[in-house]
Task: structure prediction
Amino acid sequence: MKSNIESKNFGIVIAFLIPGFVLLFGARYHINIIENWLSMDKGSIPEIGGFLYTSLASIAAGVGISAFRWLVIDHWVYKDKTELDFTKIKDKENALNMIIEKHYMYYLFYGNMFFALAIGYVSRFASRLMSNQDIFNSREAFFLGSLIIAEYILIKGACNARERYYERALAILS
Result:
């Protein structure tokens, strides 16, 4: 069984670090320093500074995306959702932590990735458009189609994980 620290670290990685890295990957088309962090020339030695900057920037970008996800999904889409009453938690904290790990962290991942992929794609598309690259070809059409499918799966997954979290949390806290 995983320790509590491993579970929390895993939650941070999937909820913030990975979506943040995807956003940075898209931002690299417009921000030279990020391009420098992410690119590796053949024969060059990876530096700890680049890894550290990329990791911290990915977490920060992931937290920023999470705020945007909260605004759109939690605040606008689910605005009528009943609030959880955490005053009844008492001896149910372990059960609540378990459903946070099994449902809520995945909700954060799916929701954050939904926005990270969309923003990353728009950034890539804008970069190609500004550099007069061919944007209307079969490769781009395949890429866009794949993105649309991935976005559909991510938003469905986010809604499902959020609903499961709320169902189980309400049952535990009632």
